[in-house]
Amino acid sequence: MEEVNQSVVSEFIILGLCDSWRLQALLLVIFSSLYLITILGNIFTVVIIIGDLHLHSPMYFLLANLSFIDFCLSSVTTPKMITDFLKENKTISFGGCMCQIFFVHFFGGGEMVLLVSMAYDRYVAICKPLHYSSIMDRQKCIWLVVISWIIGFLHAMSQLAMILNLPFCGPKAVDSFFCDIPLVIKLACMDTHILGIVINADSGVLATTCFILLMISYTYILITVRLHSKDGASKALSTCTSHITVVVLFFGPCIFIYLWPLSITWVDKFLAVFYTVITPLLNPAIYTLRNKDIRNAIKRLINKHKDSRNNF
Predict the structure, then answer these.
(1) Strand pairing partners for 91?
(2) In angstroms, what CA-CA distances link 189 with 15, 243, 280?
(3) Are 160 and 102 contacting, i.e. CB atoms less than 8 angstroms apart?
């Protein structure tokens, strides 16, 4: 007789976003285009920051790492979703499902902590400008990035450890476009109510803690500048608006999914699409379009390309 904790499910059925073939054809075109833009946008951000000496500063070092994480996060779920639009039977192996869970939480957790590091960088730059270069030195920046990766890894391992040995013996249909823990644990052949609370608390506490730290940081920045300069508030707001926008767009869906007690399928799917597909697309657009230094770097790159062509 099989042991109770032995998984007999070798693959899961992915129900996807919808059943209509016409709508799936439309979504195939839309998400393929979005994914291509996301990949090109994030890679371009990393390349322009590495290639332009004017952008070799702590803020842009952290931004380059954020773009790399967004590139990785979008690549965990979106390619699978796109290829599934072409299939009648959408399945994923048990190992593939566990890998999706691990890497979504690995890159997602790492991005949360990295956004906190970026808020800290803005705090030092705006509130302690005379000490900025000594506080945010190269070693500090590297450690901030390393810590974000470590926390992301530990968070993902804690999530995976709680679900990996669950008994899965049917049903095996995941009502989404990728394997996410709240949906997968419902398929276990045991009562997972308490486990679900623990798992959601793990993700919810990380997301909520980082979100609160970020809001406190940016609020303190604006208040501090307001007290010291009448014109400083608008300048600080302009500097921090892009950061705050990304924070709200990324953390809002995550906190809602893991902390909201009621589960509404279409809402959960929309939010899952938002933080795995849309947010990695918006991040480089928000930072690039709103950032004067990056726009100037793009102009220098274009002028350099024109000069090289003229000389040739």
Answers:
(1) 13
(2) 20, 43, 35
(3) yes
Taking the C-alpha atoms of residue 77 and residue 68, their distance in angstroms, rounded to an integer, is 15
Residue in 195, 24, 199 with CA at minimum distance from that of residue 101? 199
Total-model pTM: 0.87
Residue type, 125: A
Residues 136-145 pLDDT 10s: 988 999 999 9
Q: Does the pLDDT value for residue 245 go beyond 60?
A: yes
Rounded to whole angstroms, what are the CA distances from 121 to 118, 144, 237, 278, 296?
5, 10, 15, 25, 22
* Contacts of residue 80, Cβ cutoff 8 Å, sequence gap at least 6: 14, 92, 100, 177, 178
Give which of 294, 292, 280 is closest to 68, Cα–Cα.
Answer: 280
Cβ–Cβ under 8 Å, residues 144 and 62 = yes
Of all helices (H) and strands (E), which one includes residue 91? strand 91-93
Query: How much is the pLDDT for 234?
Result: 58
- 57 within 8 A of 140, measured Cβ to Cβ: no
Is the separation of the CB atoms in 72 and 107 below 8 Å? yes
Parallel, antiparallel, or unpaired for β 11-14 and 173-174? parallel
Tokens matching residue 309: 């062509």
Nearest alpha carbon to residue 149 among 117, 119, 101: 117
> Per this entry, what is the length of the chain?
312
